[in-house]
UniProtKB/TrEMBL annotation, chain A:
Organism the protein comes from: Deinococcus enclensis
Entry GO MF terms: phenylacetyl-CoA 1,2-epoxidase activity
Entry-linked InterPro entries: Aromatic_CoA_ox/epox, Ferritin-like, Ferritin-like_SF, PaaA_PaaC, PaaC
Keywords recorded for this protein, A-Z: Oxidoreductase
E.C. number(s) listed in UniProt: 1.14.13.149
The name this protein goes by in its record: Ring-1,2-phenylacetyl-CoA epoxidase subunit PaaC
Enzymatic class: oxidoreductase
Automatic annotation (TrEMBL), chain B:
Domain (PaaD zinc beta ribbon): residue spans on this chain: 125-166
InterPro entries xref list: Fe-S_Maturation_MIP18, FSCA_dom_sf, MIP18-like, PaaD-like, Zn_ribbon_PaaD
Every MIP18 family-like domain range: 14-84
A Pfam family it matches: FeS_assembly_P
Name of the protein in its database record: Ring-1,2-phenylacetyl-CoA epoxidase subunit PaaD
Chain segments annotated as coiled-coil in the UniProt record: none
Tree of life domain: Bacteria
């Protein structure tokens, strides 16, 4: 007699994905990696400039983790289409990058940087938490690894939101200003990527709408406790193909060494 | 150091494990990569050695150094054919750090990690003991430290600052 347990979906491998699933997964992996790379670069702009040494170190740690996550996503992509992480990172221009605009906004002041990192960390932690159930085994493995690191980011930036929100009149004002600017950009984090419906149906990636609902509950409660007001209004209607001018300058700086020495083996 | 003159065809997995147990963690030299639970598997077949290791943190800059140290340690046994694989599954956890290594961490001034548990997403940090006076009356002064795996504390009982291993 066969087992009466509920039928479980077979774990997928790179060989059992359909071509359309593969294309959609490459798009999603690149989107996840691009968000991490661009945010990590913005964070790295504080190296040597953060308000105190401990925070300089903390933000460098966070940036380093995010680059580690990007590398894991891009290693999964390489297994699907052979494209290499360094090539994708340093030799694509702003028209080819697929990050959300939230992460490319210039770094602003400390409140702006901490709030953005907090909003993003909450997204990433919850997205990864859902991604652990992926039917594509290599992706579930990456999620299980990354989610353990992400909890430290979220603890850290949640505390900064509280500290600045409940701190002085000026720290609260700066944080509220940052929230007024950034809130409309957050909905872009939860837009499905091209062809993603098929991935969701196959259990390969989570439904971004479900992640959005969890994120909204967590973040609104915390912002409220921290004395902030979430602005009303709809999110910006950008797609991942649309960028601000800021990305051009960011990539010019980030890619300059690699492009200057394109045949270097180590740098 | 283990058996430099053993013929490659006589190398056993235990020789390799013993050699790897002498490879220090590049950032915390009082513990080895085997103490840390980073070496997951050693296979020996007809003089070929294959080692599987798992990274502690995905963005750890010491990974290249560790990989090379593994190759060097096995080559020192007289084996030329060494391959090093990395795996993410199961994900590394501080629960794998050996008991005696925890004590060495503590003597070195680093609070060993608390049990990791299952609660992955929480806003509260885990309890930590001062490695010098064992008090739980400690304050975290920075949630990130000089390496990805540590954070900074001050003990309010003995007033000493110290580093604590993150519980992952």
């Amino acid at each position: 007699m066969t087992s009466p347990s509920a039928p479980s979906r077979p774990a997928l491998t790179a060989d059992t994905l359909t071509d359309t699933q593969k294309r959609a997964l490459i798009t999603r992996l690149q989107a996840l990696a691009d968000d991490e790379i661009i945010l990590a670069h913005r964070d790295s702009e504080w190296t040597g400039h953060a308000p105190i040494l401990e925070e300089d170190i903390a933000l460098a740690n966070i940036a380093q983790d995010e680059i580690g996550h990007a590398l894991m996503y891009l290693t999964l992509r390489e297994q699907l289409d052979g494209q290499q992480a360094d090539q994708l990172t340093f030799f694509r221009g702003p028209r080819e990058y697929t990050n959300v605009q939230l992460v490319e906004l210039p770094k602003g002041d400390w409140a702006f940087t901490m709030l953005r990192q907090y909003l993003y960390d909450a997204f990433e932690a919850l997205y990864l938490d859902a991604l652990r159930a992926s039917t594509y085994a290599p992706l579930a493995e990456v999620a299980n690894k990354a989610v353990r690191e992400e909890k430290f980011h979220l603890q850290h930036t949640a505390l900064w939101v509280e500290r600045l929100g409940l701190g002085t009149e000026e720290s609260r004002r700066r944080l509220q200003d940052a929230l007024n600017t950034q809130w409309a950009y957050t909905s872009q984090l939860f837009q499905p990527t091209d062809g993603e419906a098929e991935l969701i149906a196959a259990g390969i990636t989570p439904d971004p709408a479900a992640v959005h609902a969890r994120w909204d509950g967590l973040v609104r409660a915390h912002l409220d406790r921290s004395g902030l007001q979430v602005p009303a209004g709809d999110g910006h209607p950008f797609t991942r193909a649309q960028h601000s001018e800021a990305l051009l300058y960011l990539l010019t700086e980030m890619q300059s060494t690699a492009r200057e020495h394109a045949d270097a083996q180590v740098w | 150091m283990t058996a430099p003159h053993t013929h490659p065809s006589r190398i056993t997995p235990q020789h390799v494990w013993d050699a790897l147990s002498l490879v220090p963690d590049p950032e915390i030299p009082v513990v080895s990569i085997t103490d840390m639970g980073m070496v997951r598997e050693v296979e020996v077949q007809e003089g070929q050695v294959s080692v599987t290791f798992t990274p502690t943190f995905s963005g750890c800059p010491a990974l290249h150094v560790i990989r090379q140290s593994i190759v060097d340690a096995v080559r020192d046994l007289g084996v030329q054919d060494v391959t090093v694989h990395s795996t993410l599954t199961p994900p590394w956890t501080t629960d794998w750090i050996q008991e005696d290594a925890r004590e060495r961490l503590r003597q070195y001034g680093i609070a060993p990690p608390a049990p990791a548990g299952d609660q992955l997403i929480t806003l509260d940090p885990e309890p930590t003991r001062c490695p010098r006076c064992h008090s739980l009356n400690v304050r975290m002064t920075a949630s990130f430290g000089p390496t990805l795996c540590k954070r900074l504390y001050v003990c309010d009982a003995c007033k000493e600052p110290f580093e604590g291993f993150k519980s992952v």
